[in-house]
Amino acid sequence: MRVKICGITRAEDARLAAALGAAAVGFVFWPRSPRCIHPDVARAIVADLPAHVRAVGVFVDQPVEEVARVVRTVGLGAVQLHGREDSGPFEALGLPIIKAVAVGAGFVPASVATIPPTVMVLLDAHDPAKRGGTGRTIDWSLAARVAATRDTVLSGGLDPANVRAAIAQVRPYMIDVSSGVESVPGIKDPARLRALFQEV
């Protein structure tokens, strides 16, 4: 099971996630997030990561030009789009694209068919203000229907207490965890990180 630890702001958290087996770590470049990190700080953290750990940049309705600049500065290996933006223009960056889809009232699993198959789908709790990191779980039965049709990243309120059940029910390609392993937003708790990977 691939694991992405998102909302990284400290080098020690990234190193521990990598040592525990994370396939990816996420850096949030949306200014309104409590986990927002400056590209120069992220670049130093990424430079210290093992080659097999992918650095993912998280953006919310930001221009392609701005995203491209951060990609170059930091050395990102993938881009995650967490707003209302169309993924199409970002494919020109030549990196894997992850598109977040809010799973809330009225969500229909078949709706993800509008996202190109070259783009990875990430399912997260619906929150138009926070755009992720809310600590709220989504309907795993709906997520399982999506994961049965395409590679899917499962997010939304995952933590050491529920991750085993979430993986068993949804069978995602990857899980994405942020608030579930934190002491405060942006600061990962080593004990919770270790517990999460033990459960995975």
Any chance you could write out the topology, listing elements then pairs?
Blueprint (H helix, E strand, L loop, with lengths): L1 E4 L5 H10 L3 E5 L10 H9 L6 E6 L4 H11 L3 E4 L15 E7 L16 E6 L14 H8 L4 E3 L8 H8 L3 E4 L4 E3 L2 E2 L1 H10 L1
Parallel strand pairs: 1-2, 1-8, 2-3, 3-4, 4-5, 5-6, 6-7, 7-8
Antiparallel strand pairs: 9-10
Helix pairs in contact: 1-6
| Class computed from helices, strands and strand pairing | alpha/beta
* Mean pLDDT over the residues: 95
Radius of gyration: 15 Å
Q: Termini distance?
A: 7 Å
Count of helix runs: 6
Number of domains: 1
Strand content: 15-25%
In the predicted model, the low-confidence regions spanning at least 5 consecutive residues are none
Helix-residue proportion = 25-40%
Written as H for each helix and E for each strand, in order along the chain, the element string is: EHEHEHEEEHEHEEEH
CATH architecture: Alpha-Beta Barrel
Overall 3D shape: globular
State the CATH superfamily name.
Aldolase class I
Q: Describe the sheet with the most strands.
A: 8 strands, parallel, barrel
Number of E-state strands:
10
Strand order of the largest sheet: 1-2-3-4-5-6-7-8
From the 3D structure, determine the CATH topology. TIM Barrel
